[in-house]
Amino acid sequence: MYQVVAVDLGATSARVMLAQFDPLNQSLKLQQIHRFANHLVKRHGQLCWDIEHLENEIFTTLKALVVKGKQIDAIGVDSWGVDFICLDKLGHRLGEAVSYRDARTHQSSREFCEQLGFEKLYQQTGIQFQPFNTLFQLKALSQESTEWFDQIDKVLMLPDYFHYRLTGQYHWDYTNASTTGMLNCHSGQWLDELVRAAGANPNWFATTELPGTVIGRWDVDDEHSIAVISPPTHDTAAAIAAAPLMNDSTAYISSGTWSLIGIESPEPLTSSIAQLANLTNEGGANRQFRVLKNVMGMWLIEGILVHWPALDICQLCQQSSEEKGFVSLIDPNDPCFINPHSMVEAIEDYCVSHGQPVPQSASALARCVFDSLALSYRDSLQQLEQASGRRFNAIRIVGGGSQNHLLNQLCADVCQLPVTSGPVEASALGNIGYQLIGLGAIKDAQTLRHIIANSFAEKSFFPRLTPKLNSAITRFHQLSQVSPNNL
Ligand code: LFR
């Protein structure tokens, strides 16, 4: 029996999960050890991650597990992409971990991107334009005249920072490094010229390594020392590694704070069609590319729930399912939803400015979001079909958002495709799976998917006839065409 711990950091909630893998039966069991809230904090006028809080929760939970006498064969950390931490020569943290939701790049990213030439950038990196890509964050940092800027010796992506805190070793996982927008998508090497253009130093980074690599050991005390093995440290890469995708005609949606809709491809897709659709080509755990589209997902719902603290997501979904569908629609990727001071006001303003009725309740607001997300999934799938030449006959939804039966059903109805949901804890499972591959307990990526498919429950949703669908699609297109979400 192997026991492995995944620290899975999400933008709003984080989990420490313990998995048991039985090599004889090839079965996996997962147990939640601890779940804690993650939130943004304002520091020196910027929106930051509370690194001390995260580190404290991680270390306290891991130590408690060891003290209880749990045998642990390995540990690995994954989190959202693009965000990073700067270290000095002695390995001390410099400044804060500024969040990708901070506005510091919103203006400058477009200017810098235009200056570099997006087409050239896209051909080299395969990475979508998002104002928060690490490339643009570094550029913003280099222009901030921060007093410690000259002391930067290394830049680590967030999960690798926690790996460093556990082991003292510096490591750059390929999957998360690909989200920086500074890797050559063909060679997987850092594009030094681009790094320099961002005002950064190529020496701050080193060669990336594939998930499954042993980073070092965490010496808990004189008696205990545990291997730290790199998972796919980008949560989306981990989630997709755990998605039981058995053929090329199934598209996935990794559903959480974001909805990431995509396919796996042996090569990056960087045609003008892909560029125009702002598809990204992120590095996959299994050396495949994650060709996908970012759609602002549960973030919008989380933003609504802030205004109704007594409601939980299940109640909200239940009430929304009783609302009339396709009344008001939004383009979920409109920049006004990245970090509004009030999500409710942002949706209301959007409806007013697009001549639509203003949703009058939490459930009407949520219904507007769910309908719009499903329509946006449909468009993304079409863009993926055009860019890849594939035809999809099924959708697999994984991650926390896959528990949302209303959205799963709307997705099936609007996309007119069968949907299968699960596993819910996809990022943690992908994290665990690659540690087990690193330990030699699981043979390879495909075997991992079979094991996960056989070990965890799934649920099916079949497309139904939806009367007002065509007019909703037309209305949605009118909205998304006017949104400045692409360059
Ligand atoms: C999802 C995710 C997305 C990435 C966004 C920002 O949690 O990792 O893949 O585009 O967060 O990092």
UniProtKB/TrEMBL annotation:
Domain Carbohydrate kinase FGGY C-terminal as annotated: residue spans: 251-437
Keywords: ATP-binding, Disulfide bond, Kinase, Nucleotide-binding, Rhamnose metabolism, Transferase
Domain Carbohydrate kinase FGGY N-terminal: residue ranges: 4-206
Cited CDD domains: ASKHA_NBD_FGGY_RhaB-like
Annotated InterPro entries: ATPase_NBD (IPR043129), Carb_kinase_FGGY (IPR000577), FGGY_C (IPR018485), FGGY_N (IPR018484), Rhamnulokinase (IPR013449)
Enzyme superclass (EC): transferase
Keyword NADP: no
Domain of life: Bacteria
GO MF annotation, one: rhamnulokinase activity
EC number(s) on file: 2.7.1.5
Keyword Cytoplasm: no
Protein family (similarity comment): Belongs to the FGGY kinase family.
NCBIfam families: rhamnulo_kin (TIGR02627)
Name this protein carries in UniProt: Rhamnulokinase
Species, as recorded: Celerinatantimonas yamalensis
Lineage per the UniProt record: Bacteria, Pseudomonadati, Pseudomonadota, Gammaproteobacteria, Celerinatantimonadaceae
